[in-house]
Amino acid sequence: ETSDKRIALSNNYAGNSWRQAMLQTFEEVGGQAVSDGVVAAADAYTTSENQATEQAAQIQNMILQGYDAIILNAASPTALNGAVEEACNAGVTVVSFDGIVTAPCAWRIAVDFKAMGREQVDYLADRLPEGGNLLEIRGLAGVFVDDEIHAGIEDGVAAHDKFTIAGSVNGDWAQEVAQKAVAGILPSLPEIVGVVTQGGDGYGAAEAFKAAGRDMPLIVLGNRQDEMAWWAEQRDANGYETMSLSIAPGVASLAFWVAQQILDGQEVPKDLVVPFLKVTQDTLDEALESTPEGSVANTVYTLDDAKAVIAEAK
Amino acid sequence: MHSAAAAAAPIVALTDAAKHFGAVRALDGVSLSISPGECLGLVGHNGAGKSTLVNVVNGGLSPSAGTVAFPASGAGSALGAGVRSVFQELSLCPNLTVAENLRISHAALKGLRWRGQAREEIAQALDQVFPGHGIAADAPVDSLSIAQRQMVEIAIGFAPRGTEARLVILDEPTSSLDAGIAEQLLSHIKRFCAAGGAVIFISHMLGEIFAVATRIIVMKDGRVVADEPAGRFTRQGLVDAMGHVAPDAAAVEAARSFGETVVTTPEGLTARRGEIVGLSGLAGHGQAEALARLYLGATSSWRAPKAAPMVFVAGDRGRDGVLPLWSILRNATVSILPRIARRGLVDRAEESRIAADWKARIGIRTEDVTNPILSLSGGNQQKVLFARALASDAPVVVMDDPMRGVDVGTKQDVYAMIRAEAARGRTFLWYSTETEEVCQCDRVFVFRDGQISAELSGADITEERILSASFEMAEA
Amino acid sequence: MKLLHKPWLWSWVAAAAAFALTVTLTGGSGASELAYAALSFGAFAAIVGLGQMLVITLGPGNVDLSIPATMTLAGTLALKTMGSDPGTAWLGLGVAILVGLGTGLANFTLIYLLRLPPIIATLAASLVYQSIAIWSNRGLRIKPPEGLADFATGRFFGISNVALVGLALSVVIWVLLERSVWGRWLLASGQNLRAARLAGIPVEAVRAATYLAVTVFAAIAGYLLASFSGGAALNMGTEYLLMSIAVVVIGGTSIAGGSSNVPGVWGASLFMFLVVSMLNSYGAGAGVRLILTGTIIIGIVIAASTRRATR
Amino acid sequence: MTLFARYRILLPVLSLAILLAATFYMQPRAMSYFGVNLLFNLAVPIALATIAQMCIIMVNDIDLSLGAFVSLVACVVATFLNDTPLLGLVILLALVLAYAALGAVIHALDLPAIVVTLGMSFVWGGLALFILPSPGGSSPDWLRTLMTVKPPFVPMAVVASVLIAGITHLLFIRSGLGTVLRGVGGNARSVARAGWPVIRLKALAYGCAGLFGVLAGMALVGLTTSADANIALRYTLLSIAGVILGGGEFTGGKVSPVGAVIGALTLTLAASFLSFLRLSPDWQIGAQGAILILVLTARLLFTRRDAQA
Ligand SMILES: Nc1ncnc2c1ncn2[C@@H]1O[C@H](COP(=O)(O)OP(=O)(O)OP(=O)(O)O)[C@@H](O)[C@H]1O
Ligand SMILES: Nc1ncnc2c1ncn2[C@@H]1O[C@H](COP(=O)(O)OP(=O)(O)OP(=O)(O)O)[C@@H](O)[C@H]1O
Ligand SMILES: [Mg+2]
Ligand SMILES: [Mg+2]
């Protein structure tokens, strides 16, 4: 029974379509739950800059506002621990997702980012038996997710020694930045057979290759609609084949339901894992169809999905 | 009195000191010594090298050749020798209070109670030099008028500050003081010298020089051309030595006829076409503000018509006039750009022609008008500002104490130029701290407490009438 | 040596050095490719940098921090208006310029009417613009019309079209600053606002025009960038905040106001792109890259200033 | 009105009081020991950073690297100071000296501080990435204890703010050397003419900034328990805004340490106030800008400026 419970979403960044899709999913799912009387409130809060200090203050405000649970996409896995502990001490349930926190009192709905990096190389190994040079596009330096995916990619390259990483740039998870960085490094690179990415920067890389007049390598994409549209176009034109993977912004709805379950008194393990959303050549058309133009491929989780994830973790 | 002073070791002695700025020989081999008890009057045309000499003496500039020594104290630096300077351009920290400014130059003030001591010391110094000054030790300097700031700076120069002041250098200290306050300063200088201190006093007001100096040095083009006890000079002799042939102080012509009234302000200030209207009274009684209001009201921050209705000549060069990064040429023509532009682009040939013309007409001492304006001496910068205003065809010229630091010869030239322009129908509004200048006017408004306390014209414009109007209400 | 005294020299020297070092790595191949990339990406920095330069010329404290938000808002609204329909490129440009005028006007209103320091005013206003961008399109990435995208990524005589637009704008600014009355007024206002006003210069009009110019430039850059990279994103302007200031000051424009320098902005824009390319090519990690970039920036400033001092 | 002109500090105090009253009205729960601490504890490092920025603005410069510097300090504190306290201390000391040296170089070569600090922000950021390529480290226990101490009656955040304001007021406003430092901002030439070695004064001002930057980084880690290379980047702009909100001015050495601390508290409180308003997520970012404008506009309403151009 959680009809008098209030849940808040603490979000640290709103500046890309993934986060916008996440906020929208939360609004839809949370709004529905409120009007169904499942919970009393489901409010979303966003900080103006992508900064842990600002988000810590936001969490402290939520404690003051008397929320029963906070679901949290954290700017930093550790820098919010002080505020998260304050929340736990005040009796607030904290569920972190995507950007998780390490504070022991909080729940974590994690994606295995390392596996995400690794899987990209595995896929390339499958597709390119003779190996070759790879270009790695990393995210924002100093951020946990970037480090994890990078570690996974390194593992993968170590396992498949036919690949070498010929160059690595930071694309800051922004297409413009990725495009610029790739265009800058390309002239000094040998032939590139594959590009491993962290999502959201594949299209930028493709544009840079095109502008440089180079052969289009196999670029692993990140589920954005424009990337997938480009992929479909290439596929139709010359049979281009790749895959695309990322975490679904709808994971916010999963976190919402998990928090609701915890508030309901259910036994929920602290660590839950959510699979990433993968689009393959076969599912491309389907994914494109269900993704709004300019947005990101998404899955909305229901209460039953949440229960299943919980049961699986037990 | 002279022999006694000469017997003691000089406080500072320069031998063949020279200072060159590139090709400019600002100081060209000067030998000079100053003994306790002396008050040295230093005169010379604009750019003669007076400020440069001062800076070499006080250590602000190191000489390109020659030596500076401090025999009396044997100290190695000017500061250690008790040499103090009050500079031509104001040099207080405006964000600090009067007492805190004393602390800047009095490093020995320490401990928890330094504030109290500083307050006391500055109050004493001010009382001594300017009795009845009315300046609070806790007032932030930026809340003071320019005259009050000058007073504070002079007081700090004379304040004990731990060591004793042996030589105080005053570079045009009276340029923004009115006559009464200047008088107080002069008598303090006399007392100070009588007590064994020495002063170097720079001024373009020869009357002041004669009033205090025991010895007068005349500089011309970086050299000392005359160095005699004050008694041996006459006014005319001094002017001749400076190298100017000053015309007789022009008598005010018989009442001229003027056109219609072209300026009226809420204070009651009026001016007619072709008239030279003076604003007088004690410094800081609202004259400058009235002029600024008038000018800002008549012109716009949003539009600049081809024919400006009014132009402004600033007295406070650094704050209100000079554009420091630019050449003399660009500084001189900045107000007439809309007139000499074609389709928004500046006609540079025309611009150069006008600048060259004014360089000649007003005698700006420079080889090349494309030199930076800051390479000019203070007085020559002021001439550029005059050129800027007179080069426009604005019918009304507003002048805010524009002769600050302009030498006697140039002043006469400028007076003549103003009268000629007035005769051609231009109207001048002229605020001045110098009565001599005010007497050049056709009509004078005396200000007191921001209001007009008297309107004088024709033969009524006399020093006595002005002074009495300035003080009238104060006594009441 | 007159050339050695030019304040823009050092940014060009640094850009050339970075270029040479990158090209040596590949033994000379890829030089034209790199030059082309540097020109096209440098052009975006140069366009926003030119605007920022005008504002910085206005004197200490004048700087526009709303450039990233204006770029994003202009890109977002322009692409939303065009909606990928062919033949709407000019309409989109018009919308972008209107956005630039609007944000510039809003900035200047805060600065002039509320007398806020420009740093704070533009910072605060940019948060509002960011919200408007979020609200108007929810982060959806709309593709530019095909013709426009082709133009933005295309080239003419081997030089990218974006760079040509940037160069054209630079020439206009250069003429304005060097020859026009307006340029004189701007330079005078930057040296001493009060003196400029008393010399009869319409200083508020100059300031207003400048604050409008910078956002219009940012808007044009945003429009081009969105067309260049396949749509507007909410974070597309972020890196141009520091970039716009950096290219101005590295290029030799005095932060004290009253002097500006168009060629330097280009030298610095090329340098900022090339230095990252060089360090990436040599395999430097993010940490090394940042440290070297910072050190080189300071080095350029020191080199430029010691030259000035010995003049 | 002249009251506000004379006592510049009144305005910042008043805006903080009004904002606080509004916050308490919106969220009565905040009106408690616990609540006030939650509202303000994260303002402590911001206040320290604002003081650091004030030291630079005091001598007419501006520091665009402060956020990166505080981030670097946080990384050092969460790693070296925690694991090998002595080495950590040496590094922090070296950072303070580096700041002082920066001041000296800027003065000696007459460089524009804004550019040099812009360059330094890259350097600090790079160093921080070396120390902590990904978030982590942990706060030394004593620091955590210090930042979460619960003094009787008044919460730590308030005690700390009052202490910071009081000590820095003594240091920069009351003391003789502080007065001379402000004099450098007011008119460096006259300070030099009075025989002061301006280069050392500038180094001192920058050194103070470095010191308070270090303190800010330490306080931050004490609160967050760990660090990352980007943790305090926003402190650069926040500290500038704090100095201005506190009645300081960019040029002329007009600064107020008490005002700066109040400015930092106001900024922090403004963000909380907004979150209590429960705006739509679309407008939450914009509202932060709006409230900044609003608070600053109060300056216009009260302090009349010279009508002259
Ligand atoms: N920093 C400088 N650089 C170049 N030339 C200079 C500099 N300072 C002074 N001069 C030149 O040295 C000469 C002497 O200047 P100085 O300021 O000593 O004159 P002054 O006698 O004080 O004149 P005024 O009565 O106008 O103040 C002038 O020709 C001036 O242009
Ligand atoms: N070096 C600087 N860095 C950053 N900001 C500065 C700097 N110098 C000045 N500012 C600030 O920028 C703002 C606008 O500068 P501007 O020169 O136009 O001031 P102003 O409006 O003339 O100031 P005032 O009217 O208070 O004298 C002012 O608030 C000023 O304090
Ligand atoms: Mg002089
Ligand atoms: Mg003079």
TrEMBL record, chain B:
Entry superkingdom: Bacteria
Ranges annotated as spanning the membrane: none
GO molecular function annotations of the record: ATP binding; ATP hydrolysis activity
Keywords: ATP-binding, Nucleotide-binding, Repeat, Sugar transport, Transport
InterPro entries, per database record: AAA+_ATPase, ABC_carbohydrate_import_ATPase, ABC_transporter-like_ATP-bd, ABC_transporter-like_CS, P-loop_NTPase
Domain ABC transporter: 12-246, 249-474
Gene3D superfamilies with a match to the protein in the record: P-loop containing nucleotide triphosphate hydrolases
Coiled coil residues, start to end: none
Pfam families, sorted: ABC_tran
Name of the protein this chain belongs to: Monosaccharide ABC transporter ATP-binding protein, CUT2 family
TrEMBL record, chain C:
GO MF, any single term: transmembrane transporter activity
Pfam family, one: BPD_transp_2
Superkingdom of origin organism: Bacteria
Transmembrane stretches, start-end: 7-28, 34-58, 89-112, 119-136, 156-177, 211-234, 240-258, 288-306
Record carries keyword Transmembrane helix: yes
Subcellular location: Cell membrane
Topology versus the membrane: Multi-pass membrane protein
Record-level GO cellular component terms: plasma membrane
Keyword annotations: Cell membrane, Membrane, Transmembrane, Transmembrane helix
Protein name stated in the entry: Monosaccharide ABC transporter membrane protein, CUT2 family (TC 3.A.1.2.-)
Annotated organism of origin: Salipiger marinus
TrEMBL record, chain D:
InterPro entries documented for this protein: ABC_transp_permease
Membrane-spanning intervals of the chain: 7-26, 38-57, 64-81, 87-106, 113-133, 153-173, 203-225, 231-251, 258-277, 283-302
GO cellular component terms given for this protein: plasma membrane
Pfam family, one: BPD_transp_2
Keywords: Cell membrane, Membrane, Transmembrane, Transmembrane helix
Membrane-protein topology: Multi-pass membrane protein
GO molecular function: transmembrane transporter activity
Subcellular location: Cell membrane
Keyword Transmembrane helix attributed: yes
Main localisation: membrane
UniProt keyword Methyltransferase, yes or no: no
Annotated protein name in UniProt: Monosaccharide ABC transporter membrane protein, CUT2 family
Organism: Salipiger marinus
